[in-house]
Design brief:
It is a single chain. The protein has 178 residues and is an alpha+beta fold. The protein has helices at residues 11-22, 26-36, 91-105, and strands spanning 2-5, 43-50, 53-66, 74-82, 110-114, 126-127, 133-134, 147-151, 162-166. Strands 1, 2, 3, 4, 5, 6, 7, 8 and 9 form a nine-stranded mixed β-sheet that branches. Helix 3 (91-105) links the parallel strand 4 and strand 5 (110-114). The longest helix has 15 residues, at 91-105. The chain is globular, with a radius of gyration of 15 Å. Bound molecules: coenzyme A.
Length: 178
């Protein structure tokens, strides 16, 4: 398996990964919006390829934390998916770990995700509410543990509080469980 940064010409393949993984178009369209939105830059978009076939994707976008020091380098794991026949083989883990490593190399302080509370703790994500780090939109109570944070720069979360702001495609209430 190869994991590399995605290119413009990968867009159709990336959309196909989401459409197949979720069985509907919404997430594919959202991912297209995230990847096409200059306002969401910088982003980190990685594609996994096995035997020449695109099988997985992950994208992180830059975030800001209102109320925190402006120099805080925050990111959001915005979308990820693996095609159904390749799920459960470790590709999702590889994409996530690869992305977190890239971000750490770029001096990222923290990464947030709004995702499955059973899946992400394996990568070190913890409920963000514990640290008084609010999501861009109010999160329904039933999804409160889905808003998570992971420290990448040791000590970065000490005294870190505030409300996360996001750009582009993620800046809609539907994304946040409404
Ligand atoms: C979630 C997803 C990206 C994981 O990729 P993957 O390559 O299948 O994951 P891996 O093989 O690295 O890891 C498999 C683990 O993920 C868990 N997992 C897979 N889908 C999951 C889900 N929807 N919710 C919670 N855990 C999930 C499996 O139970 C398995 O756990 P285990 O290692 O404890 O047995 C992939 O299954 C997928 O695309 N699912 C559908 C789309 C989706 O839900 N994307 C958003 C995730 S928030």
């Amino acid at each position: 398996m190869i994991i590399r940064q995605s290119r413009d010409e990968d867009l159709d393949s990336i959309m196909a990964i989401y459409e197949r993984a979720f069985g509907k178009k919404n997430e594919a369209l959202l991912t297209k919006e995230i990847l096409s939105d200059a306002g969401a830059e910088p982003s980190l978009s990685l594609i996994a390829i096995v035997d020449g076939n695109p099988v997985g994707h992950i994208v992180f976008t830059k975030g800001n934390i209102d109320g925190a020091d402006e120099s805080t380098n925050a990111w959001i794991l915005a979308q990820t998916a693996v095609v159904p026949e390749s799920q459960g083989l470790g590709i999702g883990d590889d994409l996530t770990l690869n992305g977190l490593r890239h971000l750490a190399e770029q001096n990222a302080d923290v990464v947030f995700v709004f995702g499955h509370p059973v899946y992400y703790p394996r990568f070190g994500f913890q409920p963000a509410s514990t640290f008084d780090l609010g999501a861009p939109y109010p999160i329904p109570d039933k999804h409160r543990y889905s808003w998570m944070v992971r420290e990448l720069n040791l000590g970065a979360m000490r005294d870190l509080h505030g409300q996360v702001k996001c750009a582009g495609g993620l800046n809609i209430s539907e994304y946040w469980g409404k």
